[in-house]
């Protein structure tokens, strides 16, 4: 016994069902989106980057500032770049590296100044000192770092605190002002010549 041959319409229907099933399977394999586009009080961003590294070059073409961040967002209406958990590496005129970090950061118009907030920190590894404050500003053009919030400066075993902090990284100079307090333990090492 012979089965009737399917008609043209039945074949077309089966072909469309197979094609629809194949497209559905391809659609399910796509990677999910990274997450919502950041927005907020600053307005709608024109771009954002994830796992970004920014490098700033001086007039002679040498890299003098590098920032790493898990997420960077730029808003066009104020031309501000916002950074999440930024970590910076700053190079002074003498070739020494300074390390800066914070919970949040912003780069002003044209990429300057850098402002770090939320447990902001500036480290000078060559001098073995560390500054901790709530908000830290850094002007890459002049090499001036400052904080108008209470700051704690440590260079073990010494520590000092003040209401304002200024550092000029090219001159290797720092200053604490307003209500400065310090702890400077005496040197207990014996002099070998005595």
Topology, number of strands: 14
What percentage of the residues does DSSP assign to strands (E)? over 45%
Strand order of the largest sheet: 2-3-6-7-5-4
* H and E order: HEEEEEEEEEEEEEE
Name the structural class: mainly beta
Whole-number mean pLDDT: 83
Task: Please tell me how large the radius of gyration is.
Answer: 29 Å
Low-confidence segments, given as residue ranges, are: none
Main beta sheet strand tally, sense and closure: 6 strands, antiparallel, barrel
Helical content, roughly? 10-25%
What is the CA-CA span between the terminal residues?
Answer: 120 Å
> What sort of overall outline do the alpha carbons produce when their principal axes are compared?
elongated
Count of alpha and pi helical runs: 1
Give an overview in words.
By secondary structure, the protein is mainly β. Helices cover 11% and strands 47% of the residues. The chain contains 1 helix and 14 strands, in the order αββββββββββββββ. The chain has one helix at 8-28; strands at 47-57, 63-75, 80-84, 87-91, 97-101, 104-107, 114-124, 129-139, 144-147, 151-155, 158-162, 164-168, 173-177, 181-183. It has a 6-stranded antiparallel beta barrel. β8 and β9 form a beta hairpin. It starts with 7 loop residues before the first helix and ends in an 11-residue tail after the last strand. The mean pLDDT is 83.
